[in-house]
């Protein structure tokens, strides 16, 4: 679990640096325009953008579900969807720290069903 946490933090740091560089060289409007054009182009970039969009939607839905679709959960899900890895990696790191690496608690959140022994 320590190796996974370290990898997660390294990946988060990389995406922070790439995002900072992109924002410094181009505006957020350029990113939205390029993404929208690529999504509508009907080529391999469309496939990649669709894959990303569906992945972000699934991560956002998971974050909302694990919090019981509460107001907090919907905000977290929206941040995962809109923020991508920039938010999701930080969120996962916090969950792993808070739950002391218990992956079951990280994944299912408030949906844990206690097993009867």
Q: What would you call the shape?
A: globular
On the 0-100 scale, what is the average pLDDT?
93
Cα-atom radius of gyration: 17 Å
Task: Assign a percent range to the helix content.
Answer: over 70%
Unreliably modeled segments? none
N/C terminus separation: 27 Å
Number of β-strand runs: 0
Secondary-structure-based class equals: mainly alpha
Helical segment count: 5
Question: Which series of helices and strands comes N to C?
Answer: HHHHH
The main pleated sheet reads as: none
Q: What portion of residues belong to β-strands?
A: under 5%
Features:
mainly alpha, 117 residues
Briefly summarize what is shown:
With 117 residues, the protein is mainly alpha-helical. 80% of the residues lie in helices and 0% in strands. The chain has five helices and no strands.
Could you characterize the architecture of this molecule?
This protein has 117 residues and is mainly alpha-helical. It is built from 5 helices and no strands. The chain has helices at 2-25, 28-40, 44-66, 71-98, 103-108. The longest helix is centred in the C-terminal third of the chain and has 28 residues, at 71-98. The radius of gyration is 17 Å and the shape is globular.
Task: Describe the secondary structure blueprint for this structure.
Blueprint: H1 2-25, H2 28-40, H3 44-66, H4 71-98, H5 103-108
């Amino acid at each position: 679990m320590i190796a996974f946490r370290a990898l997660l933090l390294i990946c988060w740091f990389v995406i922070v640096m790439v995002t900072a560089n992109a924002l410094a060289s181009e505006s957020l409007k350029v990113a939205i325009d390029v993404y929208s054009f690529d999504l509508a182009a009907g080529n391999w970039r469309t496939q990649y953008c669709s894959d990303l969009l569906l992945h972000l939607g699934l991560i956002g839905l998971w974050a909302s579900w694990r919090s019981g679709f509460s107001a907090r959960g919907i905000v977290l899900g929206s941040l995962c969807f809109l923020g991508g890895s920039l938010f999701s990696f930080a969120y996962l790191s916090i969950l792993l720290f808070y739950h002391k690496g218990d992956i079951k608690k990280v994944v299912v959140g408030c949906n844990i069903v206690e097993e009867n022994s």
